[in-house]
Amino acid sequence: MCKDDDQKMDIIRKAFQMFDTTKSGFIDTLKISTILTSMGQPYDKTELQTLISDNDPEGTGKVNFDGFARIASHFLEEEDAEAMQQELKEAFRFYKPPDNMDDDQKMDIIRKAFQMFDTTKSGFIDTLKISTILTSMGQPYDKTELQTLISDNDPEGTGKVNFDGFARIASHFLEEEDAEAMQQELKEAFRLYDREGNGYITTSTLKEILAALDDKLSNADLDGIIAEIDTDGSGTVDFDEFMEMMTGD
């Protein structure tokens, strides 16, 4: 248990909200193992399945927040709440731009993010994905402001924007951050998933994480993103590839 139950519950709630991408108040039970992994919590698969069954007795494949909280609380180890919250935060900070970057560097980062989510190479991305991309870039945004920017760049309401439109939206929210601090954050995120210290994470693990972050991504979308990342086809992503993916360098 965490030192402060309120802090622990706040962390669990943030994890739930991050994966409840449709804001339905429910998450798929298949995502729970991914969430526990992202929180750095070990678990026994059989024990987890029993807890899921207890909290989803009708077998709907979904649990609400209360059910998830009971499951997550069961596995949470004694750990400083602040440290655990930091781990959760670092696990999902992608593409943070370096400090003092020029406009060309910033545009390279935006282009890399666009290309990863334009999996069909159509030159367009769904506007529904923009909030996911901004979240993956570690960029805070105001929902109303984002919707206004989307409307400005998709005046006909097609549900898609081209790169220029996306660049205008993303540029509005991009913040600068110290490059050394950014690299440290990425190391922490990588370490969280490379739990055995092998120096790499598998593309299947990365695919599972991406799928949990955005359940609108199809298998084809995910395969396209993985292909962009795993350029050498090794089936693994080492830290250099991970850094390249996150920073666009």
TrEMBL record:
Gene3D superfamilies: EF-hand
SMART domains registered for this protein in UniProt: EFh
Single annotated GO MF: calcium ion binding
Pfam family, any one: EF-hand_7
EF-hand domain span: 7-42, 105-140, 181-216, 217-249
Keywords: Calcium, Metal-binding, Muscle protein, Repeat
GO cellular component terms attached to this protein's record: myosin II complex
Family: Belongs to the troponin C family.
Name this polypeptide is given: EF-hand domain-containing protein
Organism: Lutzomyia longipalpis
